[in-house]
């Protein structure tokens, strides 16, 4: 299975989540390309079985501009996207950007929402989410 993980991270939580997902996928013998949104050269979702899109959430549940630019750069709504993100429940709309992207792309799998760092008890959320996404990915691959 070919997977791309495209993510945006300022303070490291979403990056840490992306790297954990990468580690888990590599242990299942998937091939994984990491894409840092706003830094790396554009990617083509059609080159992958699954594109995992990761973002943090910005003020009042909004999607960061760099992620919006990434969405525009893709230019269409691929059916092989799943969304994950980190946020903070102290803010008004926890992981609002994840919900917005899931809705926009009409994702077949719910978004993964992590509170700050993914280390510790939240790792099991990643495992469950990834299992579902990969099962779905195999069906559409
Ligand atoms: C100014 C500011 C506004 C934020 N607004 C939200 C928000 O509305 N909803 C949310 O869930 N998290 C919010 N957060 C929390 C971040 O999304 C969270 O810390 C995230 O893990 C940061 O990701 P990163 O470490 O990958 O940059 C906000 C953080 C800052 C600094």
Structure description:
There is one protein chain. By secondary structure, the protein is α/β, with parallel strands linked by helices. It contains four helices and five strands. The longest helix is centred in the last third of the chain and has 18 residues, at 123-140. A five-stranded parallel β-sheet has the order 2-1-3-4-5, with helices on both faces. Helix content is 38%, strand content 21%. Helix 1 crosses helix 4. Flavin mononucleotide binds at residues 9-15, 56-61, 86-88, 91-96, 116.
- The outline comes out as globular
End-to-end span in angstroms? Answer: 8 Å
Bound molecules: flavin mononucleotide
The percentage helix is 25-40%
- Widest beta sheet: strand line-up: 2-1-3-4-5
Largest sheet: 5 strands, parallel
Write the layout of secondary structure elements.
Blueprint: E1 2-7, H1 13-27, E2 31-36, E3 50-56, H2 65-74, E4 81-87, H3 96-105, E5 112-115, H4 123-140
Parallel strand pairs: 1-2, 1-3, 3-4, 4-5
The structure holds flavin mononucleotide.
Key structural traits:
141 residues, alpha/beta, 5-stranded parallel β-sheet, 5 strands, 21% strand, binds flavin mononucleotide
In short:
The chain has about 140 residues and is of the alpha/beta class. The chain is about 40% helix and about 20% strand. The chain has a five-stranded parallel beta sheet, with helices on both faces.
